């Protein structure tokens, strides 16, 4: 039905063509900053008397936009709209829904640089990071559209004499989508279009830190002709909407990505049946990590330093997959640390719109939290470089390395979510693996080694959902590296993988005796 799936290609911004095109998109979006954006409920644009103001993290005087903030009344309206749309959308064929997603992907692609430019202003993503996020959103639409077709066939079961048996999948109903701000388009889109393509309808509550990009997505939804009410946008403050959405007796499932604290809170609340609730809620919580890269004495240290720099400091370390622990065997510890320091000190820091390597972190809360860890790190370990805020009218934090870090120190065991890397010395590879597995998290991890036996051991014993051998530990591709952690990193949904869509369906078995 469709051409084979392949991930969206990336631009090389060292070339003048893509660079000029991106700058053109920034210019166009710059002229639209500061505008007001509605909620979208049942296809209608809805304004309330309250707004969330989105600020450029690199320039605190610049308002990216104001997004209407919903409350209890809008929540009820969104639930009604999603429920009404479900009656129709769930009856569509899988093929028709898949086609809708491919059309949505085409619409996002047509607006690729424009959407990315919004992210540059709202999330402080430099050009490659912003384009990567939009590309991933497109990939989710394309991949799930194709994968959905598989699920319209009945499940394979054995025949039984005198009977006809079939097991088919049916959609669940209305779900709530709660994404984080760090992949403000990709995770929002992926968590919404997966459930939708198999027949569910959703209420999307974006992060209050990135509401404008969510509004831009809804413009694409409208342009692509997705039926009203399939995707509803309910922006608002967590205090007004978070618990209310999770508790709502008509919320069938919750698809959440964010911190462990919020994920556990949601999981617990959703377990309690509310008055009027007639089903068990399904909850998917993809959460944080304390991801480690192990480097042993068999590898080229320059290459290892390059991999560590990309893994640790891309998008200021604000990726759930980011390397926050670098575990090095004793023989090469000092050599790698020296090379890493040199590379990190070469990173250029400045506004995302000028495409700096390191830009601002997302908001004041995160900035203060990271600074708190920097202070704690200075007490617990040896500061090698960085260690504080940088000049500028934004939330700039200098890329930081701590060495001589004890594995039990808070900077080596808690998620910081900023440009901060702890370097830990291991006696040997066994010890390195023991340190790597020594936190409750299990999201991503990596090993750089030329020793085949060690790589094989890591495959078996390194407890993470996504393990990377001899490459960076960030940048999973939809359909290529299904993504999701083990243990306290979440429910292992494996976004962008072949088992994802099944999470949003129920199975019904019909037996007829002849
Ligand atoms: P967060 O937990 O603060 O917020 C996540 C989402 O939950 C936001 O939309 C927020 O508004 C919402 N929320 C907050 N309180 C809520 C409540 N009581 N009820 C319902 N919703 C509520 O996380 P964040 O700062 O937005 O994102 C960063 C975190 O996300 C990091 O921990 C990172 O590791 C994690 N993350 C994980 C993955 C993954 O795939 N495992 C991917 C990206 C980010």
What does this protein look like?
39% of the residues lie in helices and 20% in strands. The protein is an alpha/beta fold and 514 residues long. The relative contact order is 0.13. Helix 6 (186-197) links the parallel strand 7 (174-178) and strand 8. The longest helix is centred in the N-terminal third of the chain and has 24 residues, at 127-150. Nicotinamide-adenine-dinucleotide (NAD) binds next to helix 8 and helix 9.
Key features?
20% strand, binds nicotinamide-adenine-dinucleotide, 7-stranded mixed beta sheet, single chain, globular, 514 residues, alpha/beta
Bound molecules: nicotinamide-adenine-dinucleotide
Q: Decide which structural class fits the backbone.
A: alpha/beta
Rounded to an integer, what's the Rg over CA atoms? 23 Å
Number of strands: 21
How many helix segments?
A: 15
Morphology: globular
Reported for the largest beta sheet, the result is: 7 strands, mixed
How much of the polypeptide forms β-strand, as a percent range? Answer: 15-25%
Helix content: 25-40%
Give the uncertain stretches in residue-range form. none
Strand order of the largest sheet: 14-15-16-13-12-18-19
Cα-to-Cα separation, first versus last residue: 36 Å
What is the mean pLDDT?
Answer: 98
Write the layout of secondary structure elements.
Blueprint: H1 16-30, E1 35-37, E2 39-41, E3 44-46, E4 51-56, E5 59-68, H2 72-89, H3 94-110, H4 112-122, H5 127-150, E6 163-171, E7 174-178, H6 186-197, E8 201-204, H7 211-223, E9 231-233, H8 238-247, E10 253-257, H9 260-271, E11 282-286, E12 291-295, H10 301-313, E13 323-329, H11 330-346, H12 364-380, E14 382-385, E15 400-403, H13 410-413, E16 420-426, H14 429-436, E17 441-442, E18 444-448, H15 452-461, E19 466-469, E20 486-487, E21 505-513
Parallel strand pairs: 1-5, 7-8, 7-10, 8-9, 10-11, 12-13, 12-18, 13-16, 15-16, 18-19
Antiparallel strand pairs: 2-3, 4-5, 6-21, 14-15, 17-20
Helix pairs in contact: 1-4, 3-5, 4-5, 4-7, 5-6, 10-11
Bound molecules: nicotinamide-adenine-dinucleotide.
